[in-house]
Design brief:
Blueprint lengths: L6 H29 L5 H35 L38 H15 L11
Helix pairs in contact: 1-2
Length: 139
């Protein structure tokens, strides 16, 4: 719980309270305007408390996330490195490899479009000559 009393978290707590009180106050103001005959204010009278609820929801999620992160840090300390051993290499963060098809695409219907073929030759030339500019293309 000590983690939730840092200056950043105190600012978050204060911001949450100010926003919720402000949004609920604006909702009450819209209720009084709606009671005076302003029919559009009925929608706003519902909208402001929803905003307040959203602020509480986001604050609660951030609070749980911070507590869960601190609990995981305490539960899983880093293993001590043995003297003279190589430093441990962290596992990559990517869980699934990205699979890319290396097979050239076949034109739809089997027909080869002349402009498409010329463009593909141009792209192949650019790929084969990485330092070249597009204006250097001989074709």
């Amino acid at each position: 719980m000590k983690r939730l009393w840092t200056p950043a978290w105190i600012a978050r707590h204060v911001a949450m309270v100010v926003l919720v009180v402000g949004f609920l106050g604006l909702g009450w103001w819209q209720v009084t305007r709606a009671a005076e005959g302003n029919s559009l204010s009925f929608g706003y009278a519902i909208e402001w408390p929803v905003f307040a609820g959203f602020v509480v929801f986001v604050w609660w999620r951030e609070l749980r996330h911070a507590l869960r992160a601190s609990r995981e840090e305490r539960a899983d300390p880093a293993p001590p490195a043995a003297a003279g051993s190589e430093p441990a290499v962290a596992a990559p963060a990517v869980r699934r490899p990205v699979r890319v098809s290396r097979v050239p695409a076949v034109p739809v219907g089997g027909a080869d479009d002349g402009e498409l073929a010329a463009y593909n030759r141009y792209l192949s030339w650019l790929n084969a000559n990485p330092g070249a500019k597009p204006g250097d293309y001989p074709g």
